[in-house]
Amino acid sequence: MRITLVTTLAVIAQAALAHHSASPHFDLEQVLELDGAVTELRFVNPHAYVYFEVVAESGETAEWRCELGSAVELRRSGWTEQTFVPGQRLFVNASPARREDHHCYTNFFTLADGTMITRQGSLLDTAASAETEAIERPAVLGNGQPNLGGPWTSPGMGPRPNLPEPTEAGRAAAASYERIYDDPAVNCHPGNIVTAWTWDTPTNDIYQEDNAITLQYGYMDLVRRIHLDRTEHPAEIVPSVTGHSIGWWEGDELVVDTMGFGQGVLYTPTGLMHSDAMHVIERFRVEPDGMTLVREYVASDPAFLQSDFTGEQVMQRLGESYTPYDCTELSGANNRRPIR
Fold it and tell me: For position 198, what pLDDT does the model report?
Protein backbone atom coordinates (compact mmCIF):
# COMPACT_ATOMS: atom_id res chain seq x y z
CA MET A 1 0.00 0.00 0.00
CA ARG A 2 1.22 3.52 -0.70
CA ILE A 3 0.80 7.26 -0.35
CA THR A 4 1.87 9.53 -3.22
CA LEU A 5 1.86 13.32 -3.56
CA VAL A 6 0.83 14.33 -7.09
CA THR A 7 2.19 17.71 -8.13
CA THR A 8 0.06 18.28 -11.20
CA LEU A 9 -3.11 20.33 -10.71
CA ALA A 10 -4.92 19.04 -13.79
CA VAL A 11 -6.44 16.11 -11.93
CA ILE A 12 -8.45 18.33 -9.64
CA ALA A 13 -8.87 21.59 -11.55
CA GLN A 14 -12.54 20.89 -12.18
CA ALA A 15 -13.14 19.67 -8.62
CA ALA A 16 -11.53 22.79 -7.19
CA LEU A 17 -13.86 24.99 -9.17
CA ALA A 18 -16.93 22.97 -8.30
CA HIS A 19 -16.07 22.84 -4.60
CA HIS A 20 -14.52 26.26 -4.02
CA SER A 21 -16.04 26.41 -0.53
CA ALA A 22 -13.79 23.50 0.46
CA SER A 23 -10.61 25.43 -0.23
CA PRO A 24 -10.40 27.11 3.21
CA HIS A 25 -10.41 23.64 4.78
CA PHE A 26 -8.39 21.61 2.27
CA ASP A 27 -5.43 22.37 0.01
CA LEU A 28 -7.06 21.66 -3.33
CA GLU A 29 -3.83 22.49 -5.18
CA GLN A 30 -2.30 19.28 -3.88
CA VAL A 31 -3.44 15.77 -4.69
CA LEU A 32 -2.63 12.68 -2.68
CA GLU A 33 -2.97 9.17 -4.03
CA LEU A 34 -3.69 6.85 -1.13
CA ASP A 35 -3.85 3.07 -1.23
CA GLY A 36 -5.60 1.77 1.84
CA ALA A 37 -7.96 -0.68 3.48
CA VAL A 38 -11.32 0.55 4.79
CA THR A 39 -11.84 0.42 8.54
CA GLU A 40 -15.18 2.28 8.77
CA LEU A 41 -17.71 4.36 6.83
CA ARG A 42 -19.37 7.03 8.99
CA PHE A 43 -22.58 7.71 7.06
CA VAL A 44 -23.53 10.97 8.80
CA ASN A 45 -24.38 14.66 8.25
CA PRO A 46 -23.15 17.27 7.47
CA HIS A 47 -20.31 15.20 5.97
CA ALA A 48 -19.85 11.47 5.78
CA TYR A 49 -16.31 10.12 6.18
CA VAL A 50 -14.52 6.99 5.05
CA TYR A 51 -11.77 5.81 7.43
CA PHE A 52 -8.95 3.63 6.15
CA GLU A 53 -5.45 2.43 6.99
CA VAL A 54 -2.48 3.29 4.82
CA VAL A 55 0.82 1.41 5.15
CA ALA A 56 3.81 3.56 4.23
CA GLU A 57 6.95 2.22 2.53
CA SER A 58 8.58 2.24 5.97
CA GLY A 59 6.02 -0.28 7.12
CA GLU A 60 4.31 2.13 9.51
CA THR A 61 0.50 2.19 9.48
CA ALA A 62 -1.37 5.47 9.55
CA GLU A 63 -5.10 5.99 10.14
CA TRP A 64 -6.65 8.31 7.55
CA ARG A 65 -10.12 9.73 7.06
CA CYS A 66 -11.48 11.42 3.95
CA GLU A 67 -14.50 13.70 3.78
CA LEU A 68 -17.46 12.90 1.52
CA GLY A 69 -20.71 14.72 0.84
CA SER A 70 -23.55 14.65 3.34
CA ALA A 71 -25.45 11.45 4.04
CA VAL A 72 -28.56 13.26 2.75
CA GLU A 73 -27.00 13.76 -0.69
CA LEU A 74 -25.24 10.40 -0.77
CA ARG A 75 -28.41 8.50 0.04
CA ARG A 76 -30.16 10.17 -2.91
CA SER A 77 -27.29 9.00 -5.11
CA GLY A 78 -27.74 5.37 -4.04
CA TRP A 79 -25.09 5.18 -1.30
CA THR A 80 -25.76 3.23 1.90
CA GLU A 81 -23.93 2.48 5.14
CA GLN A 82 -22.57 -0.63 3.37
CA THR A 83 -21.19 1.07 0.26
CA PHE A 84 -17.70 0.58 1.71
CA VAL A 85 -17.05 -2.25 4.14
CA PRO A 86 -14.17 -2.97 6.55
CA GLY A 87 -11.23 -4.59 4.80
CA GLN A 88 -12.19 -3.34 1.35
CA ARG A 89 -9.25 -2.01 -0.63
CA LEU A 90 -9.58 1.55 -1.95
CA PHE A 91 -7.38 3.77 -4.08
CA VAL A 92 -8.22 7.31 -3.02
CA ASN A 93 -7.49 10.48 -4.94
CA ALA A 94 -7.74 13.26 -2.36
CA SER A 95 -6.53 16.68 -1.20
CA PRO A 96 -4.97 17.17 2.24
CA ALA A 97 -6.55 19.08 5.11
CA ARG A 98 -4.87 22.40 5.88
CA ARG A 99 -4.68 22.05 9.65
CA GLU A 100 -4.70 18.34 10.44
CA ASP A 101 -2.57 15.38 9.35
CA HIS A 102 -4.11 12.25 7.82
CA HIS A 103 -7.35 14.09 7.02
CA CYS A 104 -8.40 14.68 3.43
CA TYR A 105 -11.01 15.81 0.93
CA THR A 106 -12.13 13.05 -1.41
CA ASN A 107 -11.87 13.73 -5.13
CA PHE A 108 -12.63 10.18 -6.28
CA PHE A 109 -12.18 6.52 -5.38
CA THR A 110 -10.99 3.69 -7.56
CA LEU A 111 -12.11 0.23 -6.49
CA ALA A 112 -10.06 -2.92 -6.86
CA ASP A 113 -11.94 -3.82 -10.07
CA GLY A 114 -11.15 -0.41 -11.63
CA THR A 115 -14.55 1.20 -10.99
CA MET A 116 -14.25 4.94 -10.29
CA ILE A 117 -16.62 6.73 -7.88
CA THR A 118 -16.52 10.46 -7.24
CA ARG A 119 -17.04 11.84 -3.72
CA GLN A 120 -20.81 11.78 -4.11
CA GLY A 121 -21.19 10.11 -7.46
CA SER A 122 -24.37 8.28 -8.33
CA LEU A 123 -24.55 4.57 -7.62
CA LEU A 124 -28.11 4.32 -8.91
CA ASP A 125 -29.13 2.10 -11.79
CA THR A 126 -28.94 4.50 -14.72
CA ALA A 127 -31.51 2.40 -16.59
CA ALA A 128 -34.10 3.05 -13.91
CA SER A 129 -36.72 5.68 -14.66
CA ALA A 130 -36.02 9.04 -13.10
CA GLU A 131 -39.61 10.21 -13.47
CA THR A 132 -41.53 11.13 -10.37
CA GLU A 133 -45.06 9.80 -10.20
CA ALA A 134 -47.80 12.30 -9.56
CA ILE A 135 -48.84 12.32 -5.92
CA GLU A 136 -52.54 12.78 -5.32
CA ARG A 137 -53.15 15.41 -2.66
CA PRO A 138 -56.10 17.74 -2.14
CA ALA A 139 -55.43 21.41 -2.84
CA VAL A 140 -57.56 22.38 0.18
CA LEU A 141 -57.86 20.66 3.56
CA GLY A 142 -61.11 19.87 5.33
CA ASN A 143 -60.71 22.97 7.52
CA GLY A 144 -60.57 25.19 4.44
CA GLN A 145 -56.83 25.87 4.59
CA PRO A 146 -54.74 25.55 1.41
CA ASN A 147 -52.77 22.32 1.69
CA LEU A 148 -49.09 22.99 2.31
CA GLY A 149 -48.52 19.61 3.94
CA GLY A 150 -45.14 18.03 3.27
CA PRO A 151 -42.76 16.35 2.91
CA TRP A 152 -41.02 18.69 0.50
CA THR A 153 -37.53 18.07 -0.89
CA SER A 154 -35.01 20.67 -1.94
CA PRO A 155 -33.40 19.61 -5.24
CA GLY A 156 -30.66 22.18 -4.61
CA MET A 157 -29.85 25.10 -2.36
CA GLY A 158 -31.24 27.43 -5.00
CA PRO A 159 -30.04 30.82 -6.20
CA ARG A 160 -27.92 32.98 -3.96
CA PRO A 161 -30.01 35.45 -1.95
CA ASN A 162 -29.78 39.18 -2.50
CA LEU A 163 -27.03 40.15 -0.08
CA PRO A 164 -27.20 43.65 1.42
CA GLU A 165 -24.24 45.64 2.61
CA PRO A 166 -23.77 45.52 6.38
CA THR A 167 -23.99 48.62 8.51
CA GLU A 168 -20.99 49.74 10.55
CA ALA A 169 -22.44 47.78 13.50
CA GLY A 170 -22.91 44.75 11.24
CA ARG A 171 -19.28 44.88 10.12
CA ALA A 172 -18.14 45.17 13.72
CA ALA A 173 -20.21 42.10 14.66
CA ALA A 174 -18.59 40.11 11.83
CA ALA A 175 -15.03 41.27 12.55
CA SER A 176 -14.07 38.15 14.48
CA TYR A 177 -16.02 35.69 12.29
CA GLU A 178 -13.90 33.08 10.50
CA ARG A 179 -16.00 30.57 8.62
CA ILE A 180 -13.54 27.72 9.01
CA TYR A 181 -14.02 27.90 12.78
CA ASP A 182 -17.30 29.78 13.28
CA ASP A 183 -19.62 28.28 10.67
CA PRO A 184 -22.65 27.20 12.74
CA ALA A 185 -22.56 23.75 11.10
CA VAL A 186 -19.25 23.03 12.84
CA ASN A 187 -21.24 23.07 16.08
CA CYS A 188 -24.28 21.28 14.57
CA HIS A 189 -26.21 24.55 14.74
CA PRO A 190 -28.79 25.42 12.04
CA GLY A 191 -27.67 29.03 11.73
CA ASN A 192 -31.00 30.73 11.06
CA ILE A 193 -34.54 30.03 9.84
CA VAL A 194 -33.95 31.54 6.40
CA THR A 195 -31.00 29.67 4.88
CA ALA A 196 -31.57 26.45 6.84
CA TRP A 197 -34.77 25.80 4.84
CA THR A 198 -32.78 24.55 1.83
CA TRP A 199 -29.23 24.22 3.18
CA ASP A 200 -27.74 20.81 2.39
CA THR A 201 -30.73 19.99 0.15
CA PRO A 202 -32.97 18.55 2.91
CA THR A 203 -36.45 17.08 2.96
CA ASN A 204 -38.63 19.27 5.17
CA ASP A 205 -42.07 18.41 6.51
CA ILE A 206 -45.06 20.66 7.15
CA TYR A 207 -47.80 19.70 9.62
CA GLN A 208 -51.05 21.68 9.60
CA GLU A 209 -53.57 22.14 12.40
CA ASP A 210 -56.49 24.53 12.65
CA ASN A 211 -54.62 27.01 14.85
CA ALA A 212 -50.96 26.27 14.12
CA ILE A 213 -48.54 25.04 11.48
CA THR A 214 -45.32 23.23 12.33
CA LEU A 215 -42.29 23.44 10.07
CA GLN A 216 -39.95 20.48 10.51
CA TYR A 217 -36.66 21.34 8.86
CA GLY A 218 -34.60 18.49 7.43
CA TYR A 219 -31.41 20.44 8.09
CA MET A 220 -30.22 20.19 11.70
CA ASP A 221 -33.74 19.04 12.71
CA LEU A 222 -34.88 22.61 13.42
CA VAL A 223 -38.56 22.88 14.40
CA ARG A 224 -40.73 26.00 14.18
CA ARG A 225 -44.34 26.56 15.26
CA ILE A 226 -46.41 29.19 13.48
CA HIS A 227 -49.34 30.49 15.52
CA LEU A 228 -52.47 31.13 13.44
CA ASP A 229 -54.65 32.02 16.43
CA ARG A 230 -53.02 35.32 17.34
CA THR A 231 -52.35 38.59 15.52
CA GLU A 232 -49.56 39.99 17.68
CA HIS A 233 -46.33 38.71 19.16
CA PRO A 234 -45.99 38.49 22.93
CA ALA A 235 -44.64 41.60 24.67
CA GLU A 236 -41.61 39.61 25.83
CA ILE A 237 -39.91 36.93 23.73
CA VAL A 238 -36.94 34.86 24.85
CA PRO A 239 -34.41 35.29 21.99
CA SER A 240 -33.80 32.08 20.03
CA VAL A 241 -32.83 30.70 16.63
CA THR A 242 -36.48 30.29 15.63
CA GLY A 243 -37.92 33.42 17.24
CA HIS A 244 -41.70 33.71 17.57
CA SER A 245 -43.91 33.28 14.49
CA ILE A 246 -47.49 34.32 13.77
CA GLY A 247 -49.20 33.56 10.48
CA TRP A 248 -52.30 34.26 8.42
CA TRP A 249 -53.68 33.39 5.01
CA GLU A 250 -53.83 35.79 2.09
CA GLY A 251 -55.70 33.84 -0.54
CA ASP A 252 -53.67 30.69 -1.18
CA GLU A 253 -50.52 32.09 0.45
CA LEU A 254 -49.43 31.59 4.03
CA VAL A 255 -47.81 34.77 5.35
CA VAL A 256 -45.52 34.34 8.36
CA ASP A 257 -44.20 37.15 10.55
CA THR A 258 -41.27 36.23 12.84
CA MET A 259 -39.24 38.20 15.37
CA GLY A 260 -37.44 37.54 18.66
CA PHE A 261 -34.17 36.17 17.35
CA GLY A 262 -30.83 35.93 19.08
CA GLN A 263 -27.92 37.56 17.25
CA GLY A 264 -26.26 35.22 14.76
CA VAL A 265 -24.96 34.50 11.26
CA LEU A 266 -27.38 35.22 8.43
CA TYR A 267 -25.25 34.05 5.51
CA THR A 268 -22.35 31.80 6.47
CA PRO A 269 -20.25 31.95 3.25
CA THR A 270 -19.66 35.70 3.66
CA GLY A 271 -20.10 36.05 7.42
CA LEU A 272 -23.07 38.41 7.06
CA MET A 273 -24.49 38.82 10.56
CA HIS A 274 -27.96 39.65 11.87
CA SER A 275 -28.84 41.33 15.16
CA ASP A 276 -31.51 40.45 17.71
CA ALA A 277 -33.71 43.06 15.98
CA MET A 278 -34.07 41.03 12.75
CA HIS A 279 -37.64 40.77 11.45
CA VAL A 280 -38.53 38.12 8.84
CA ILE A 281 -41.60 37.96 6.59
CA GLU A 282 -42.15 34.74 4.63
CA ARG A 283 -44.73 33.76 2.02
CA PHE A 284 -45.45 30.08 1.29
CA ARG A 285 -47.54 28.87 -1.63
CA VAL A 286 -48.07 25.65 -3.56
CA GLU A 287 -48.01 26.03 -7.33
CA PRO A 288 -51.04 24.84 -9.35
CA ASP A 289 -49.25 21.60 -10.25
CA GLY A 290 -49.47 20.60 -6.57
CA MET A 291 -45.86 19.43 -6.72
CA THR A 292 -43.96 22.65 -6.10
CA LEU A 293 -43.68 24.67 -2.89
CA VAL A 294 -42.35 28.23 -3.18
CA ARG A 295 -41.11 30.22 -0.22
CA GLU A 296 -40.26 33.90 -0.54
CA TYR A 297 -38.58 35.74 2.32
CA VAL A 298 -37.60 39.25 3.36
CA ALA A 299 -35.31 39.73 6.36
CA SER A 300 -35.09 43.30 7.64
CA ASP A 301 -32.49 44.39 10.17
CA PRO A 302 -31.69 48.12 10.16
CA ALA A 303 -29.20 47.58 13.00
CA PHE A 304 -26.89 45.32 10.96
CA LEU A 305 -28.11 45.55 7.32
CA GLN A 306 -28.29 48.58 5.03
CA SER A 307 -31.11 46.99 3.03
CA ASP A 308 -33.25 43.84 3.11
CA PHE A 309 -31.93 40.28 2.74
CA THR A 310 -34.31 38.71 0.21
CA GLY A 311 -34.71 35.58 -1.86
CA GLU A 312 -36.86 32.70 -3.05
CA GLN A 313 -36.55 28.97 -2.40
CA VAL A 314 -38.29 26.15 -4.25
CA MET A 315 -38.99 22.62 -3.01
CA GLN A 316 -40.55 19.63 -4.79
CA ARG A 317 -42.73 16.64 -3.96
CA LEU A 318 -40.24 13.90 -4.87
CA GLY A 319 -41.61 11.02 -2.85
CA GLU A 320 -38.96 11.33 -0.13
CA SER A 321 -39.86 11.27 3.54
CA TYR A 322 -38.37 13.47 6.22
CA THR A 323 -35.40 11.74 7.83
CA PRO A 324 -33.75 13.10 10.99
CA TYR A 325 -30.52 14.89 10.18
CA ASP A 326 -28.81 13.73 13.39
CA CYS A 327 -25.79 15.97 12.94
CA THR A 328 -22.45 14.35 13.77
CA GLU A 329 -19.59 16.75 13.05
CA LEU A 330 -16.34 14.89 12.33
CA SER A 331 -14.14 17.66 10.92
CA GLY A 332 -12.04 17.60 14.08
CA ALA A 333 -8.96 19.76 14.52
CA ASN A 334 -9.18 20.99 10.93
CA ASN A 335 -12.13 23.20 11.93
CA ARG A 336 -11.16 23.91 15.53
CA ARG A 337 -9.68 27.33 16.30
CA PRO A 338 -6.16 26.83 17.63
CA ILE A 339 -5.49 28.00 21.17
CA ARG A 340 -3.22 31.02 21.06
Answer: 96
